[in-house]
Amino acid sequence: MFQADEVEALSSIYGTDFHTESTEHKTYSVDIIEGKLMCLLQVTMPLDYPGESPPIYMLSAPWLKGLQRQELCGYLEEIYLENVGESIIYMWVERIRQFMVEQGELNEQETGELELSLSLASAELEDTSEDLTPCPEIFSGEIISDRRSHFQPHLATVKSQAQIRQVLRKLYENKKIASATHNIYAFRFEPEGSTCINQDCEDDGETHAGGRMLHLLQILDAKDVLVVVTRWFGGILLGPDRFKHINNAARQILHSCGFISTQVDKGKKSRKGK
Fold this sequence. Notes:
This protein is an alpha+beta fold. The protein is built from 9 helices and 10 strands. It has helices at 2-14, 66-82, 89-116, 125-128, 161-172, 175-178, 209-220, 241-256, 262-273, and strands at 18-22, 27-34, 37-44, 56-60, 138-140, 144-146, 149-157, 182-189, 198-202, 225-232. Strands 5, 6, 7, 8, 9 and 10 form a 6-stranded antiparallel beta sheet that branches. Strands 1-2-3-4 form a 4-stranded antiparallel beta sheet. The N and C termini lie far apart (58 Å).
């Protein structure tokens, strides 16, 4: 009864911005727009919500990365702990909206500071040279689908952080990719004139997924490569299977682009035969 009343209230408050994703699984979403920022909050109500458990939620916003995402999730967690047993989805939506207002103001302040420092731009010649060089070619692989979630890999050959930024910017120009639930990536490259490997990864809200992809690149000894796996969440939780699909998508495009050597494949087959 409590859940039905909350859904009715949310639908009344948010109108066309409120969507029923799955009546069977009690999954709903709210579009939150504030200034130039957009965010999609998707929630699934467990049977024991609001009495004993919080809603299961997913945030989808291309601007919400790393520490920003952790900070906002912390605020939502605080709201639940302070209101255990109560309906909290409205409070979550409005706290997300407040966070977006704060981020918009921060972005405007940073833009102003950036304009003031343009006179010192000579120190940034290396970064501005990115615009003078063509973006590395990006290859996209086949989509893996499971229970309405979709995973698509992308790959580019890279030799510098500047090229990585170019590739990510180019991918985010695609609105479908930019609005995806997660864009997880990992890279490894040897800078020109160095034998040291430069490597890193990004979970983009899918905890540990980037680290698993980087580990895959390490065990394959793949170098001079950036792999991005885009995930569109379909409303049904996949559990550990999501990590399997992310790594399989990454492996698929690494193989099709020639980053997995025949020797690695033979080695795996011979170990299976023992």
